[in-house]
Each structure stands twice: as C-alpha cells, then as structure tokens.
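Thread: Pyrimidine/purine nucleoside phosphorylase, structure

OP (GT): Posting the sequence first so everyone is looking at the same thing. Length is 104 residues per the record. Can we get the structure tokens written out before standup tomorrow? I want them in the notebook alongside the other entries.
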Amino acid sequence: MTQLKNVTIIKKANIYFDGKVTSRTVLLQDGTKKTLGIMMPGEYEFSTELKEEMDIAAGKLEYKIAGGEWETIDGSGVFYVPANESFQLKVHTVVDYCCSYLAE
C-alpha cells in the first residue's frame, strides 16, 4: 500500500530515543491504527502490546525478535512481531517505516 485514504492523523509526534526514532499516528476509518515514521542509525529495543507488522519502505536494518536470529532488510521488506513480545533493531541507514497494529 503506497497511499492511505480517508484517515485522521494525530498531530503530536511519538518521539523515542532522544529523537532518533519518530512517528505520527494514523487512524483509519475502520478503527485500525498505524504509525508512519523514521529511524536514524542506532540500536533500539521495543516491546509490543498488540501484534505488529513492520513495513520497511526504505533503508537498511537488522531485526531480532525475542528468541530469534538476526535478520536483515536492505531496501524494503516486512516483518511481524507477536503481541506482548520485544524486538531489537540495528539501524544502519535512515529507515522509513509504517507500523500496523493488528488484531490477533
């Protein structure tokens, strides 16, 4: 999906890791939530409440879901994080991403 239509955007930014990871919340008409953001190079760890789809539009990173192996996305790709789980990121270049929060 390259375009989101008929959405509400929350003006206040989500800012993490001293501004190295930022996003904006987008609410769709059906009630689903996404965030659109940028990650600067660095190492980060996040945890989830809901299942997440991380859709990488551009950039290079490695990711590791708790208990898993490191995997690489260079350019674009998607990975999923289960609900109530943590994941680590090693961001090598600026990463443009869209995170979708999914019902189980």
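GT: Both are above now. Quick notes for whoever picks this up: The mean pLDDT is 94. The first strand starts at residue 7 and ends at 9.
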